[in-house]
Design goal:
2 helices; mainly alpha; flat
Length: 50
């Protein structure tokens, strides 16, 4: 019956591992995610919708 708690705990462990693994690359990751956000916002803003 604790499957949701177990999966939540497992997801938290994966999240912590990922943050630890990407720590040396944090600025590259932020830059890549930031570029994706800017590109998506630009597409939404400047592409004409019919």
């Amino acid at each position: 019956m604790n499957s949701s708690k177990d999966s939540s705990n497992s997801l938290w462990q994966v999240y912590r591992w990922m943050l630890h693994y990407l720590k040396p690359y944090r600025w590259k990751v932020f830059f890549t995610v930031g570029c994706g956000v800017v590109m998506t916002a630009g597409e939404d803003e400047f592409i004409k919708k019919p």
